[in-house]
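REQUEST FORM: STRUCTURE PREDICTION
Request ID: SP-0412
Submitted by: Lab K.M.
Chain count: 1
Length (residues): 183
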Amino acid sequence: MDNYIQQNFDNLNFDKDGLIAQQGTVNENLLSSLLQHNFFHQPYPKSTGQEVFNMDFLNQVLQSSLQSSYQTIINKYDVVATLNMFTAKCIANAIYQTITEKDFTIYISGGGLHNKTLMQNLQQLLPNNVIQSTENLGINPNAKEAILFAILANETLCGNHNFYNSTSGVRPKVTMGKVSFAT
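STATUS: Completed
RESULT:
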């Protein structure tokens, strides 16, 4: 979303408060095309980033989506609204695929917390759940990466392992880091 904003909206780095997304309408054909990526069919645990979901990916999906819907252009506000919903759907789908409880509280941190449209989309997709900032737990929501690395370091040093369910039925034992000493 940020890369698209940077390339299509002068002097903006991101969609502050989700105001650009609010001005657009979700393009269902584009949304469906975005969600078809093979990454979403892989078992957990998994992770990815801009090496997969980048402007090249988006441009390819936009072109394909335009051709399949016989459109010539998708309004840039509609693209941002669709990318916002895409982000919310990815989060909601991951939650539904990995959590068995029906009603729970979700604690949000990081930049997405400040995007009001994203938070509204998440609440719409997770209607039976409470969504709160990690600030309610006494954790600075803007310190997400620092806190995560501290947790991973602690778990690694303590020798704790995490177990992940997978569709294959195998539950791999995973350490969340490795200690390397200088030689």
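NOTES: Residues 76-98 form the longest helix (23 residues).
Reviewed by: T.R.
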